[in-house]
Design a protein that fits this description.
- This is Methyltransferase domain-containing protein.
- Residues 58-156 form the Methyltransferase domain.
- Pfam families: Methyltransf_25.
- It is a single chain.
- By secondary structure, the protein is α/β, with parallel strands linked by helices.
- It folds into two domains: 4-30 and 167-224, 2-Layer Sandwich (Carboxypeptidase Inhibitor, Chain A), CATH 3.30.1040; 42-164 and 226-265, Vaccinia Virus protein VP39 (Rossmann fold, 3-Layer(aba) Sandwich).
- 29% of the residues lie in helices and 31% in strands.
- The chain has nine helices and 13 strands.
- Strands 2, 3, 4, 5, 6, 11, 12 and 13 form an eight-stranded mixed beta sheet that branches. Strands 1-10-9-8-7 form a five-stranded mixed beta sheet.
Length: 273
């Protein structure tokens, strides 16, 4: 996809500029650098605290390179990781191949769409890392909830994080923001985000902070906004019982800016009583 910001940047860089999908093959190294830099931390601890001991295998949806899967493997859990993008699945399998035999034996990697999957087994817990639910629009999220219901053991949980509603401010939030951050390699990147309220979407553009790079990869992506109340409403309509949500910080040392949503399929709850 193209964004207005990407078009301006590409026009200024000439043949050096290369437009690519953030989850595509061309951007694989950038994806690895950024995703592994943000792995683990408060989110892993918050989810792990809500997983019942002995509840069985765990399924991570939209697993990426295993932002949750690998920390959970370190806890000794049995994991299945489902990811749609072929380039990301390849990166995940490369990473898994470098792990110990014990870790490899406890992890299954599947290429698939989290809005419509059938794995032929059930799980005690299904997890989705913060932000990953946002890759699905309203029309595809019901398929996700139905697929999760079909794969949960009786009493099994669905756990995922969504951003807390921002505090009210006298002035409206700007529609665009730009920030710099550092990847695991130490390389600096720029993220530009543009909200489109009428479409409930946000356009994302990521590129090297050094715009003289050759080639200059310009990676784009789109996400759909979903808040805590909307997520809970959708889960209820999909037949889930939602417990009181808890909160956690998105990064170490930050205030609690994320909400952990926990849900159990309603008829599974009743059947287990």
């Amino acid at each position: 996809m193209r964004t207005a910001y990407a078009d301006v940047l590409l026009a200024s860089t000439g043949e050096r500029g290369v437009l690519c999908d953030f989850y595509g093959e061309a951007a694989a190294e950038i994806y690895r650098d950024l995703v592994q830099a943000g792995e683990g931390g408060p989110e892993v601890r918050a989810i792990a605290a809500r997983v019942r001991p002995g509840s069985g295998p765990v399924l991570e949806l939209a697993a990426g390179m295993g932002r949750l899967t690998f920390p959970f493997l370190e806890l000794g859990w049995e994991m299945t990781a489902l990811e749609l993008a072929p380039a990301v699945v390849t990166a995940f399998r490369d990473r898994l191949a470098a792990a110990t035999a014990d870790v490899r034996d406890r992890c299954t990697v599947v290429q698939g769409d989290m809005s419509d999957f059938a794995l032929g087994k059930r799980f005690g817990t299904v997890v989705i890392s913060a932000g990953s639910l946002n890759v699905l629009d309203r029309s595809r999220r019901p398929g996700l909830y139905a697929s999760v219901r079909d794969h949960l053991e009786p009493g099994g949980k669905l756990l995922f994080g969504v951003p807390k509603p921002p505090p009210a401010k006298p002035e409206p939030e700007p529609l665009e923001r730009r920030q710099e951050f550092t990847g695991r390699s130490g390389r600096r990147y720029v993220l530009h985000a543009r909200n489109i309220p009428a479409e409930e979407t946000q356009e994302i553009t990521i590129h090297y902070a050094d715009v003289t790079a050759d080639p200059l990869l310009v990676c784009t992506h789109r996400i759909w906004h979903i808040g805590v109340e909307q997520a809970m409403e959708e889960l209820t309509l999909a037949g889930f019982e939602v417990t009181a949500p808890s909160s956690f910080g998105s990064i170490e040392g930050s205030s609690d800016d994320m909400v952990l949503v926990e849900a159990v399929a309603r008829e599974i709850t009743e059947g287990a009583e």
